[in-house]
């Protein structure tokens, strides 16, 4: 182990131990750990030669691909700060992100070049643009600063080792932009120590090991998608990268072909799988672990996962970008506590507080507070918003994360997510947690997903409004949804209006985007 631990030590050490082992595969391309190490070293040296310095921000704008993985590790080895950008990002937003963090360099997939041509001329901090991938570059009169292709940048390097490390473990490793479901995206600052701690904690309780084959269908720009790469590299497993879940049958065929053993997902992905009536559980016979994040799994989806993955341990997890992961539900507790998101992950402490910052006991609803080495350094150049989230902890000089999430702890210390504080609806003077209403609606036969919001009402203050997506071929009436709510909820929680929609708006990471509902 190097004297100063860095996130890319995971790659360096695994490449030393098993250089010929396959690190990842994506659309017919395969890279061994030795190749991933060599190519990321070449990129790191090339970035330094082209003027990238310690602490500079480098953005990677690409689909899930070997080149994106090479870029992630290469930027870290150059002592720079890496920020992965969702490939669905449009020109205006990419320009905003580049300017927000004053990026020095952009590594971008050639297939996304039209967006690059729109954004880079509006980002004066960018001094170097690296074109990655095999797609031909569109013809353009636009001049891009320091334009070079990734193969040329790698080929120009004779040095085969990583550059000397200059960072400390408290230096920034990555900026991960929040989804921006409300307002402008914010960059979460994560240090090497933050990310080393998170990857170690999660891979430990998931019991990941070198013989695992991990599916990487979540975007690398989404923190849990990125952690599939990090954790696979840490334990020396093989990562099967897929561009997305737009073609489920193709992804499932890859799961079978590559003998996937670990299947990470999010609720929206699992909801889509629940509609695929032709799924054969035998196809997933080798999957030993199914992991969920982004939002709590509904009981209906848990039952479907148990039927679809008969030999797998199902991990229901909860977290947020600002600390990566908060809790996990041990699979053996899934049946007795199906609505819980579990206990604190290893090396993390949590508690709940009321509006006066007083700690709460069992079965009381309050704001979740997280303490541990995974807690972010703050939001990039947003001191006011940082102060709202990071507050003084138990020890002098330390800070803890006030998540903004309302939760409940039971007598055994298991956490249940109630809702976002920002989402709470005030109807007739009472507080309504949308999650409670959504859970009841999703239980209605034929309902696939639901989102509940509050809308202005002269009499009620706010009225409860529900948006509902039905399963394919299902017919459900508004009165059925309202009657189900009347049977199980207090009167002030029952929706005044139910709107059926073909789909719900989502963020880049698959979370339901309630700001897109009115």
- Number of helices in the DSSP assignment: 14
Beta-strand content: 25-35%
N→C terminal distance: 53 Å
Major pleated sheet: 5 strands, parallel
3D shape: globular
What is the mean predicted local confidence, pLDDT? 91
Which percent range fits the helix content? 25-40%
Q: Helices and strands: which structural class? A: alpha/beta
Regions with little confidence, pLDDT below 50 for 5+ residues: none
Rg over C-alpha atoms, rounded to the nearest angstrom = 23 Å
Strand order of the largest sheet: 4-3-5-6-7
Secondary structure: number of strands: 27
Structural overview:
This protein has 518 residues and is of the alpha/beta class. The chain has 14 helices and 27 strands. The strands form seven sheets. Strands 4-3-5-6-7 form a five-stranded parallel beta sheet. A five-stranded mixed beta sheet has the order 12-13-14-15-16. Helix 4 (91-100) packs across helix 5 (113-119). The longest helix is centred in the first third of the chain and has 17 residues, at 33-49.
What is the topological layout?
Elements: H1 9-17, E1 22-26, E2 29-32, H2 33-49, E3 57-61, H3 66-77, E4 81-85, H4 91-100, E5 105-109, H5 113-119, E6 128-132, E7 148-149, H6 150-155, E8 172-177, E9 187-191, H7 192-205, E10 213-216, H8 223-235, E11 238-241, H9 248-257, E12 262-265, H10 267-274, E13 289-292, H11 299-308, E14 313-318, E15 327-329, E16 343-344, E17 348-353, E18 365-372, E19 378-379, H12 383-389, E20 390-392, E21 399-409, E22 415-420, E23 425-427, E24 430-432, H13 434-442, E25 447-457, E26 461-470, H14 478-488, E27 497-500
Parallel strand pairs: 1-11, 3-4, 3-5, 5-6, 6-7, 10-11, 12-13, 13-14, 26-27
Antiparallel strand pairs: 1-2, 8-9, 9-19, 14-15, 15-16, 17-18, 18-21, 20-21, 21-22, 23-24, 25-26
Helix pairs in contact: 1-2, 1-8, 2-3, 4-5, 7-8
């Amino acid at each position: 182990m190097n004297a100063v631990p860095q996130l890319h030590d995971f790659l360096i050490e695994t490449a030393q131990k098993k250089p010929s082992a396959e690190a990842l595969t994506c659309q017919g391309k395969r890279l061994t750990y030795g190749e991933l190490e060599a190519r990321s070293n070449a990129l790191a040296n090339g970035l330094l030669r082209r003027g990238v310095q310690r602490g500079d921000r480098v953005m990677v704008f690409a689909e899930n691909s070997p080149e994106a993985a090479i870029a992630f590790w290469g930027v870290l080895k150059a002592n720079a700060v890496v920020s992965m950008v969702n490939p669905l990002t449009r020109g205006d937003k990419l320009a905003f992100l580049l300017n927000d963090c004053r990026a020095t360099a952009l590594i971008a997939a050639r297939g996304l070049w039209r967006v690059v041509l729109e954004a880079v001329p509006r980002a004066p901090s960018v001094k170097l643009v690296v074109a990655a991938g095999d797609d031909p570059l569109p013809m353009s009169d636009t001049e891009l600063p320091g334009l070079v292709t990734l193969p040329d940048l790698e080929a120009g390097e004779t040095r085969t080792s990583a550059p000397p490390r200059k960072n400390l473990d408290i230096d920034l490793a990555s900026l991960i932009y929040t989804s921006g479901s409300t307002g402008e995206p914010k960059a979460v600052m994560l240090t090497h120590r933050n990310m080393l701690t998170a990857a170690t904690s999660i891979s430990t309780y998931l019991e990941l090991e070198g013989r695992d084959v991990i599916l990487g269908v979540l975007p690398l720009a989404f923190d849990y998608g990125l952690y599939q790469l990090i954790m696979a590299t840490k334990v020396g497993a093989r990562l099967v990268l897929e561009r997305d879940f737009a073609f489920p049958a193709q992804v499932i065929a890859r799961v079978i072909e590559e003998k996937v053993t670990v299947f990470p997902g999010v609720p929206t992905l699992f909801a889509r799988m629940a509609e695929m009536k032709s799924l054969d559980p035998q196809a997933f016979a080798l999957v030993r672990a199914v992991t969920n994040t982004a939002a709590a799994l509904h009981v209906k989806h848990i039952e479907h996962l148990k039927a679809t993955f008969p030999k797998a341990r199902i991990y229901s997890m909860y977290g947020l970008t600002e600390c990566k992961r908060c809790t996990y539900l041990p699979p053996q507790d899934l049946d007795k506590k199906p609505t819980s998101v579990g206990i604190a992950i290893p090396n993390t402490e949590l508690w709940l507080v009321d509006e006066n910052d007083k700690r709460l006991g069992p079965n009381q609803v309050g704001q979740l507070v997280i303490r541990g080495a995974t807690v972010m350094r703050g939001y990039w150049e947003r001191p006011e918003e940082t102060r709202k989230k990071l507050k003084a902890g138990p020890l002098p000089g330390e800070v803890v994360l006030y998540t903004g999430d309302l939760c409940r702890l039971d007598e055994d210390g298991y956490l249940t997510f109630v809702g976002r504080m920002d989402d709470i609806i005030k109807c007739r003077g009472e507080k309504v947690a949308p999650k409670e209403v959504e859970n009841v609606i999703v239980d209605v036969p034929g309902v696939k997903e639901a989102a509940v919001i509050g809308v202005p009402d002269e009499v009620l203050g706010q009225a409860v409004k529900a948006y509902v997506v039905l399963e394919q071929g299902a017919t459900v009436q508004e009165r059925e949804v309202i009657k189900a709510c009347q049977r199980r909820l207090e009167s002030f929680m029952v929706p005044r209006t139910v709107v059926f929609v073909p789909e719900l708006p989502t963020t880049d990471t698959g979370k339901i985007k309630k700001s897109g509902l009115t």
